[in-house]
Design brief:
Chain lengths: 347, 388
């Protein structure tokens, strides 16, 4: 049983500390960059040495770490970790023709640097792992946390995900046709009928344990699929809901619709398979598209369960049955990696 | 099991080379780098083109890392006699690990990332997950698929993760392992940290000067005991633990907290006394820091009664994200054949710890083997395999 007790999200929107999703930040040149926190208490020297992915992860984790809750381990999902450092080091290799290089960027570029830095800052010698399975990095990290909490029900873990927009991954994914050629504002992301999406980034952290009391939410179930076959994915969705919700319908479906018209068919099929009363929300206009964006959907689900409100700009179809107790998240990354996550009120 | 490394392309070839104390380290033949003849490397002796032909892997964008992984996976699947129905079943998991992924193509990636090209065929092959995703697609694996990167302990963690998926009923069988290929990226990275040795590495020797990089891949098929009726069982995974040294991004603490805790945790899970360990496949990279710290941690845990131990890094080089899985295969060979392989190039023990590794091949009765993998970021993992 995985219960979420604290949430913290550094994203392109007003999600950190005093969350207010009615304030809407627009994308610039097809990029939604995070609003960086103030990093209270972290020496400037340490901050300068950190790459962005590490820095925003530390920033997102701070409100959780500040409460001094004992942690038994750190579980992070990130597709790429510190990509900016990676390309900086690669540029050094080519430009100096494999000459004398400084190791700073190399050490910062390893994706396990996020979990390592968090472990180091807390002197946490517990379980420490980094899942890097592209669009399912966060989901695999969450499955890991669910297993750990069954193995050690008295433990608490920091579960999180982060990825950054770097020159490198933006260029490579742009060439790969994953970011739009024309400039599109996130305000109109779902109205443009063209392939590709806009870039995003973020760091989301959760304090999780097996304790139901005072929890914000529970991640009830996660299912992941590798397939391009929309019928297979929908068949799996049906089985997933039958298994975990019996005959109940979730009050809300949050989809990963991202303005890429090639993948609309998956989301339309998922919407069609829902009960008419289920409300439909979207979040990629807030987060942008990136491999661990689904962690922001889980943050949003927790926020909705806590406040019973959600911003108007996220609504695709209104929910006809409040209060919101169960939220289904369906995300797909690049049309191949799909996930269903069921987030529900702990009661 | 399946394995490919600088000392052989299959499990039997690797075992034969370990028995005769073969060192697979040479100047680079297949990767172009300024360092090619300046230091030894544990390079797999097949060109990328020949690997493609041999494996009939002509898909666009396939990298050397994925090809090495496919080579080892093919051997493991053949050896396991899993049917294609079983491989494609929803309860078959595939857990890979890599720290280089497609970055072995450093030059191509440089061009793509800096928009010096219209886009190469490798655009979706650079990341770590590209390796598992390639294998998933090729074999149509329908269960949980994952990729882990905890630096040099990555594939020890994929073994752990697969075992835990089975334990929790999230998979009936798990194909676990890892792959890394030599890359300008890692060669220059480790060189900038000044931990590459210009000579062949000397694990646990007082005069050790650093590590040699290698490449390779290994995969293992894990199943529950009750599902193994009528099948060959090579060993049982009875203990594992992951812990963090929480000391420094690229070196281990003097007292070796992370290594000590990962070995202790694995012993506790296996419910074994330290004395039950018959052999330790040490991480033993040949760096100043690792070998001293690993020795200290072993002395702490084994109370000065250190079991036989050695490192195979002097045979294969340090294969980074693949090393945990490759050495899991070697540990299982220790048990299966009741033999230990000597570490190469050892002359004098480290003055502060005085530990002497096994240096020549010998047969001995072994019930349990402990295999260590420690990485950057303080990521330490230990596995214990037992004779069945």
């Amino acid at each position: 049983m995985l219960y979420i007790h604290q949430i913290s999200c550094v994203s392109p929107q007003q999600t950190f500390l005093d969350a207010d999703l009615n304030i809407f930040h627009e994308s610039v040149e097809n990029k939604l960059k995070v609003i960086e926190p103030t990093y209270e208490g972290i020496p400037a020297n340490n901050l300068r040495r950190m790459g962005k992915a590490v820095r925003i992860s530390v920033g997102a984790a701070l409100p959780i770490l500040k409460k001094n809750t004992p942690l038994n381990g750190i579980i992070i999902g990130t597709a790429n970790g510190g990509m900016e450092d990676c390309i900086k080091f690669m540029n050094q290799i080519i430009q100096y023709n494999e000459g004398l290089l400084t190791p700073g960027n190399f050490v910062q570029s390893t994706p396990n640097g996020i979990a390592a830095q968090l472990g180091l800052s807390q002197h946490n010698t517990g379980y420490n792992i980094t899942h890097v399975h592209r669009g399912l990095s966060f989901e695999n990290a969450a499955i890991d946390a669910m297993m750990l909490l069954e193995e050690f029900p008295k433990n608490a873990y920091l579960l999180g995900a982060a990825d950054e927009i770097s020159t490198y991954n933006y260029n490579v994914d742009f060439l790969g046709g994953w970011y739009k050629k024309e400039t599109v504002s996130n305000k109109n992301l779902y109205e443009v009928d063209s392939p590709a999406s806009i870039a995003g980034e973020g760091a989301v952290m959760f304090l999780v344990n097996a304790e139901k009391t005072k929890a914000i939410a529970q991640i009830k179930a996660i299912h992941t699929i590798h397939s391009e076959d929309v019928n297979f994915v929908m068949q799996e969705l049906k089985l997933f809901l039958e298994k975990h919700l019996k005959n109940d319908a979730p009050e809300i479906l949050i989809t990963g619709e991202n303005g890429d018209n090639r993948f609309l068919k998956y989301y339309k099929a998922a919407e069609k398979s829902m009960d008419n009363k289920t409300g439909i929300l979207r979040y990629k206009h807030m987060s942008g598209e990136y491999p661990t964006a689904s962690s922001q959907a889980v943050w949003l689900a927790c926020n909705i369960l806590q406040t019973q409100t959600f911003p108007e700009h996220a609504v695709k179809r209104k929910s006809a049955n409040p209060p919101v107790k169960t939220i289904l998240i369906y995300n797909n990354y690049k049309g191949v990696q799909h996930s269903f996550m069921l987030v529900s009120h702990p009661e | 099991m399946g394995v490919i490394s600088a000392i052989g392309n299959t499990v039997p070839e690797n075992r034969a080379a370990l028995k005769t104390g073969t060192c697979g380290m040479h100047p680079l033949k297949h990767l172009s780098s300024n360092f090619a003849d300046k230091m030894p490397f544990g390079e797999v002796n097949i060109s990328t083109e020949d690997l493609k032909k041999k494996l009939n892997a002509h898909e666009k964008g396939v990298t050397r890392t994925s090809l090495l992984a496919l080579h080892a996976l093919q051997e493991a699947l053949k050896n396991s006699a899993l049917t294609s129905v079983e491989i494609q079943s929803k309860d078959t998991a595939l857990i890979g690990a890599s720290t280089v992924g497609g970055m072995c193509l450093t030059d191509e990636m440089y061009k793509d990332a800096n928009l010096h090209s219209g886009g190469s065929e490798y655009l979706s092959s650079y990341d770590f997950a590209s390796v598992s995703l390639y294998l998933q697609h090729r074999y149509k694996i329908n269960g949980i698929v994952n990729t882990i990167n905890t630096a040099c302990s990555s594939s020890a963690n994929s073994v752990m993760y697969g075992a835990r998926l089975i334990k929790h009923g999230l998979a009936k069988r798990a194909i676990v392992g890892g792959a890394d290929s030599l890359a300008k990226f890692t060669i220059n990275g480790f060189n900038s940290l000044q931990i590459l040795s210009s000579d062949i590495c000397k694990p646990f020797d007082e005069a050790r000067k650093g590590l040699n990089l290698g490449e390779g891949a290994a995969f293992l098929v894990l199943e529950k005991e009750e599902d193994c009726a009528g099948k060959t069982i090579y060993a049982e995974l009875i203990g594992y633990c992951n812990s963090n040294d929480a000391f420094h991004p690229s070196s281990l603490s003097e007292q070796g907290d992370g290594p000590f805790l990962s070995m202790l945790g694995a012993l506790n899970q296996a419910r074994l006394h330290p004395q039950a360990i018959g052999f330790i496949n040490a991480h033993g990279t040949g760096t100043e820091n690792n070998d001293a710290v690993e020795s200290t941690a072993m002395l702490r845990l084994f109370n000065n009664e250190i079991p036989d131990f050695a490192s195979t890094k002097s045979n294969t080089g340090h294969t980074l994200g693949a090393s945990g899985a490759i050495e899991a295969v070697y540990s299982i060979l220790n048990l299966q054949h009741q033999e230990v392989y000597g570490g190469l190039n050892f002359t004098n023990p480290i003055s502060t710890t005085g530990l002497i590794p096994v240096q020549i091949y010998k047969q001995k009765e072994i019930h349990h083997v402990l295999s260590n993998s420690f990485g950057f970021g303080g990521n330490c993992s230990s596995l214990i395999f037992s004779k069945v």
